[in-house]
Known about the structure:
This protein is an all-alpha fold. Helix content is 71%, strand content 2%. Strand 1 (131-133) and strand 2 (136-138) form a beta hairpin.
Amino acid sequence: xxxIDRHYGLDWLRIGAFGVLILYHVGMVxxxxxxxxxLPGADWVAIPMIASSAWRLTLLFxxxxxxxxxxxxxxxxxxxxxxxxxxxxxxxxLFGMALILPPxxxxxxxxxxxYQQTFGRFWLRDYYDFKNVSGVDxxxxxxxxxxxxxxxxxxxxxxxxxxxxxxxxxxAQRGYDLLFAGVLSLLIPALFMVAVKAWWFVGExxxxxxxxxGVAHASYLPAFLFGWGLAGSPQVLASSxxxxxxxxxxALVAYALAASIEYRWPGxxxxxxxxxxxxxxxxxVQGWAAVAALIGIADRFWNRDxxxxxxxxxxxxxFYIIHQTIIVVVAYWLIVATDLPSGxxxxxxxxxxxxxxxxxxxxxxxxxxxxxxxxxxxxxxxxP
Length: 384
């Protein structure tokens, strides 16, 4: 098996996507969309947020698929690959669910449902009762659903690798190279995303409950597999590098249309026909066109190393684990202890979240037994 080299451009994309994700979750505190805790905001905040909501997670699954292929190329086979990925994903997921996430449902119950119990009692009793309290399921993986889904997709892929002979896998790669060559790498996935958003799952929202989340799986599993195929296809990477300007223009036009509809019918208002369908189509087109443009830009301009890349690449997983708990807890404190303008609340949330993420990462990486719990390799395995 040919070893796949690290693509520094996709590393930068992953770092940037997680940075956007953190800002997006800060924004969720202020928009009229549902979230664990809310501060006074405005409908217009949704306009810049949908600039990334259509593509951010799709991009992360594409990059994860590419990285998984690169890791598999260095493994001893599907079994060791699945075992290593399970340790790297399940251990932080379970640690996060047990110790990092509990403040989030507690704050939500307190501010939304008048829950009277202290956090200590909630954590030690209600959280581990495997029940639903005022519509909140516990225990929960909340924003760590991404890790759970990535693990499931990885196991499914490892099983497929066990069951398919090498010649069939090679034929599948050749088919991928032909199917997504040239401008088709933009058109086919964009049409697929439109079908998901505007036809197969009209009006459905992601549940992040794994079993009942068809719209998410229809979007993210193909994205993960696309990234896997991309890692073995210099031809498709070259197509992305060639067509990124066109993809960027399409993404910007689609975003302008989706943002205009969101501005006209903000929040939970239902757009009059046919504008709801047009929004879904524009959202789907924007979702893939932005991913295609970013992959092309990363391959064309960013595929080079930098002294800070290794640290940032390592830090994004710990950042991801801790960031939303910091946001929710700080927002709760702002509700209880202060009465500040929304702009000041936003600055405090961003500053506190950034500082808390770096503190969590630096402390975690310096403590040997804690490293695997926050998604870092042990010191012995990280040294090479």
